[in-house]
Amino acid sequence: MKTIPSLPKPFKGIVPPMITPLLDDDTLDVEGLERLINHIIDGGVHGLFILGTTGESTSLSYKIRHELVERTCEIVDGRVPVLVGITDTAATESLRLANTAAEAGAAAVVAAPPYYFSLGQPELIEYYEYLVERLPLPLFLYNMPSHTKIVIEPDTVKTLSKHEKIVGLKDSSANNAYFNKVLYKMKDRSDFSLFVGPEEIMAETVLLGAHGGVNGGANMFPELYVKLYEAAENGHVETVKALHDQVLEISTRLYALGKFGSSYLKGIKCALSVLGICSDYMASPLHHFRKEEREKIAENLEDIKVKIQELGLKAQD
Amino acid sequence: MKTIPSLPKPFKGIVPPMITPLLDDDTLDVEGLERLINHIIDGGVHGLFILGTTGESTSLSYKIRHELVERTCEIVDGRVPVLVGITDTAATESLRLANTAAEAGAAAVVAAPPYYFSLGQPELIEYYEYLVERLPLPLFLYNMPSHTKIVIEPDTVKTLSKHEKIVGLKDSSANNAYFNKVLYKMKDRSDFSLFVGPEEIMAETVLLGAHGGVNGGANMFPELYVKLYEAAENGHVETVKALHDQVLEISTRLYALGKFGSSYLKGIKCALSVLGICSDYMASPLHHFRKEEREKIAENLEDIKVKIQELGLKAQD
Amino acid sequence: MKTIPSLPKPFKGIVPPMITPLLDDDTLDVEGLERLINHIIDGGVHGLFILGTTGESTSLSYKIRHELVERTCEIVDGRVPVLVGITDTAATESLRLANTAAEAGAAAVVAAPPYYFSLGQPELIEYYEYLVERLPLPLFLYNMPSHTKIVIEPDTVKTLSKHEKIVGLKDSSANNAYFNKVLYKMKDRSDFSLFVGPEEIMAETVLLGAHGGVNGGANMFPELYVKLYEAAENGHVETVKALHDQVLEISTRLYALGKFGSSYLKGIKCALSVLGICSDYMASPLHHFRKEEREKIAENLEDIKVKIQELGLKAQD
Amino acid sequence: MKTIPSLPKPFKGIVPPMITPLLDDDTLDVEGLERLINHIIDGGVHGLFILGTTGESTSLSYKIRHELVERTCEIVDGRVPVLVGITDTAATESLRLANTAAEAGAAAVVAAPPYYFSLGQPELIEYYEYLVERLPLPLFLYNMPSHTKIVIEPDTVKTLSKHEKIVGLKDSSANNAYFNKVLYKMKDRSDFSLFVGPEEIMAETVLLGAHGGVNGGANMFPELYVKLYEAAENGHVETVKALHDQVLEISTRLYALGKFGSSYLKGIKCALSVLGICSDYMASPLHHFRKEEREKIAENLEDIKVKIQELGLKAQD
After folding, report:
1. Across the interface, do D117 and C287 touch by the CB < 8 Å criterion?
2. Do residues A49 and A18 touch, judged by C-beta distance below 8 A?
3. Which of A61, C109, D104, D316 has the fewest CB atoms within 10 Å, measured from its CB?
4. Which CATH number does the domain housing residue A84 bear?
């Protein structure tokens, strides 16, 4: 068993939500996975989050989910802490995956609320307490109302934070009034990590005290997000503005193509394929971009790479 | 391998969405399961639907889901067709369960839309086509917008009904304007089954041409729902009114306790436990009723049993 | 002052939600209004409902709303009871309109919940009590969650029904499980009127005890809806099926054109214009159908008129 | 006619959304209004916004709305630009109010989308174009999806910004990913004002380029919001953090009491009454806080006033 990096308190920085490279619905792109992990870690990130929404976790078979945990931990080999998404409608499956994560050497798990039956806040608290009593690893809460249809209310975060094993929150609501209320309520808990998901809001939240970002764009350009995080943490407003602007260009030009939802996810996978890093296959029910969108992504990517290099940062050739 | 009852076209009648008797989060109540199945079939039902919303399917481990399919088919032993819910966010897991269902002798499978990523209607059509090409059994569509956050639009039903393997729709929206539009669009397809979920609306939909009900109350009082279905199918309006009134009393007095959602599901499981049929354990994230609600359920159940017997129907003692 | 028809208890039958004929955003089509009212009343309807959702009430200036109340009552001249929608975000404006209605000789008013601030059920009860204490006319509750974003819960209806001045409910949710629960809870109150809005569900609700329909299609073909209502009230299932089928054809072929919401409303106004009854101008923010949709409506309308005549009913030439 | 302050381009700073002081549902608290306006202007704000959501505009009779516009402009007397909310479901009423605003000397109007019928984005564009062609004053768009149930999409803002008379956007979504996308798309339009509503997010948006805040708390403590705005505009991160923390304390302790929605609005009105500035009467359907909540507000207000004075700012005695 590998040496597991123990998680600092609070855990801070850029923790990319890794996409899952696939060859088909039930086969990992193992070579792509290795290239992708190395690419991300070379960008200086502070951790790696697998099996989140960006990782298409809910679309993957359990065989693939367990295999991905094992292979990722092996490839990462202790270079950065690995966080494993265990979000599920069935607590038994969450726990089974958490055990695989612990055995493989992951540092923590991440769980959004169950997303089929709708729960009241007291039921949500009971749910997390049920998990925590049985988990072999520390837990990050994951607020994701657009997909789970329930908000982990600020007072619920406060209540749950009293459990020693609950060590942080990843908020993907994009609602900064919500996030700032949580930040304010938790200001006496400097050990509790508060991350945001959407990269479009990472800079400003870190400027005001958040601990980091779980930003999809860091699959493609990890260094950009790391530098932006560092500038924000140090209060360098002018640098923040320049790098934040670059993040918004990525968001505007790579995540907004196509007609339906998930254009963000399709855009990242497509870009990684254009960059030669891994396959862009997506598990059912989603589908990768076809020719027209791919050509647009490729074209936009060229501009973005130039600008990223002009900022003095690495961009995959 | 058992003889599999071939599904009539259209398939018609009362097909109870069976609750899943559990001893704990990962153990079936096997004795309760056998009592429950026999109790339901003795009521004269036309089929049995397992692993639906009422069956808590999304809360169960896959081990339990597969085991339940096998044990149910074995206990039913060809007395009625068994329909198996394969609703999942991961198509690979839906297909794995469908294969178990086919091997165990189930007659058909039932799938609601994936419920994590939100899809457009064209993506939903692609999803069902992906499934259908790989399924070993006929498929019923399952419209369940309160839980999946997407409607299978009437035109989508029409489009999908052209696939030979798609044989019907179970609609649990409770939106009868929706249901009647589907019924109208499909009126030239007398082989395509249209069922509704909520028992509060079964009578009227069958009166106007629907093929049956997938009604939770039939776990407790199967004969009531069968007789109501028959009266409606035969246009006996006065009988319909009397029996429909009884169904509404069940709905009002057994499904509306407690503070949060799922009071319907908690009410049925609690009542079955009070009736001595099976355990009322519920898988996380839901919880069975505690003492106060259980006493209220028991009290209401006494009244309901008396009234059901006054209607000349069987009620469990 | 005219003789005001006193409202029977319960008030029953077909009460068309009249569209508002307009020449432009701030001018009534007065001649069209007279033709439309006479056309509807000649169809044998039991009342007339103005300033509902179908009447575009929220899009009209208050000048027009008050003028419409006065002119309508004058034209109707006691032939049928007139119900006036007073739904508003500002209770003061609801009351002002109710006073105009009382002076003009209307029989009752109709109010959906306020639709800007979201209220809890206790606040909703307080709101209706505030209104009722100040109203000069009986009040119908109006459940319209798709537009107001709040449900008048069955228990709230029960609570409010204790006020002598609250005499009924119009439910436009299309959720028949909801409606049947209300019907069951109110079954000891034979004086309290329960109407449904969507014409696609009117037949089945009347078969099971509802008191009538507030159906938009009755602007065009009032006799069809009256005959369907009578057949349903008398339990003539075969007649119900035939006429209900015709209603569904109207819904399918006239209300589903165009790309956005309100295709129902646009379809009715367009059809009335094609029939030569009144102008199809719609108040901002909605817009009437342009040439392409109008031609389709005209074409479908021809088929529908033939079928309605084959049913032995009048259809405008 | 007064001299109307012409609106700078871009208009910037703190523009409090003024509450509407009322004595009862149809009577302004005229003395309170004068005290409140003077109190706010003395805090150094850059403008005054009346008849927004915080101003309970949709709950007020039109008589009151027009009277408030006239009295406010008179009292303000050119000291700061007055912006008038004209949000309505009926465009004719919006225009009537806009004319009153122009005559009274207001500087601009503000309109959220109509909030009864749901519109597609092209219909929304048509709606705003209809308004703009008829408006006597510049227009700010107002994104308020929690109340209007429609988002003004970033591309819609971009399209509408081409009309000379549309001069800015107030975004109250609290969704900073949305806001940052708009900010990015509009970065070549330095004359177009981008404001946010929720005070919990004002600091960070101004740090990254927004033009100001329309923050309710500035009814009570205008100077705090002005100083926070100035610190953010100048990139003084440490000052921002300290003042932002104070804003969050106000939000946490004054806006989160009571059981239902609108606790924010009830909290501000109650606090202003405790501070002796104006009446806390709320127009139906909302209600002011009763004794228990008022005592809690008064207690929390004492702490807050001390802290605000410790920050070197004025707090009403």
Report:
1. no
2. yes
3. D316
4. 3.20.20.70
